[in-house]
Amino acid sequence: MAYPVYIFDAYGTLFDVHAAVRRYADQIGPDGARLSQIWRDKQLEYSWVRALAGRYKDFWQLTEDALNTAFALVPTVDRAYRDDLLAAYSRLDCYPEVPGVLRTLSEQGAKLAILSNGSPEMLDGAVEAAGIGPLLDGVLSVDTLRTYKAHPDVYDMATSHFRTFPDKVSFQSSNRWDIAGATAFGFRTVWINRDGKPDEYLDLAPEAVLSSLDGLESL
Fold first, then answer.
1. What is the CATH architecture assignment of 19-89?
2. Domain 5-16+94-218: which topology?
3. Cβ atoms of 140 and 161 closer than 8 Å
4. Which residues contact 74 (CB under 8 A, 6 or more apart)?
5. Where in the sequence numbering do the catalytic residues fall?
6. pTM of the predicted protein model
7. What is residue 62's predicted lDDT score, i.e. its pLDDT?
C-alpha cells in the first residue's frame, strides 16, 4: 500500500458535474453544454468570493445561485427545468471507474474519504446514489468550517480526522487549483485531468497526473 490514507475531492473527481444537464439534454437543446459550464464556473467563483469575503453560504445555496445566473446568461434555455436540474444535481452520476478503484484501495488496507466543498446533504445524496458509502471511512464537508477550499484549514480536516501527517495522505482532485492548495498543505497530490487541460500553478505541481482514477492504486 503506497499511502495509508486517500482523500478525494467530490465534484468533478468522483461525481460528474455535467451529468445533471445531460439528463435533460434533449429537452434543454443545443445550449445545454454552455449552461452546464457556466453553472459550474459560477458555482466555484461564488465559493472563492465567499471564502475571501468571509460571507459564507453553504454550497447548495451557491449551486442554486449559480444556476440562476447560468439561466440569465443563457436565455435560450427554459427556466422551467430549474427544479429538475437541481434535483438531478443532488444525485449526480459517479464516473464509471470510481467504485472499482475505491474498492481496490480499500481492499489494500487504505483509509478512504471525501473532502469537499459540498454541503453534508449534497454529499450524502451523491454518495448514496453512487453506492460507494460502504467503501468510505469519512465524508468531510467544509460546512463545519464555514469556508471553502483552498483554505489550508480545509485540508487540515483530513489529517485531523485520520490523526495523521500530511505526507501520509494522497489527495486526488480534478481541479488544478485544489491540487495547488493541497500541495501547498503538504499532501502527495494526484491531478485527475479528465479534460486534458494545460498545467497551471507550476510552483505547486502534483506528483502525478492521470486522465481518470484508473491506475491510482498502482502509483
1. Orthogonal Bundle (1.10)
2. Rossmann fold (3.40.50)
3. yes
4. 31, 34, 35, 38
5. 9
6. 0.95
7. 98
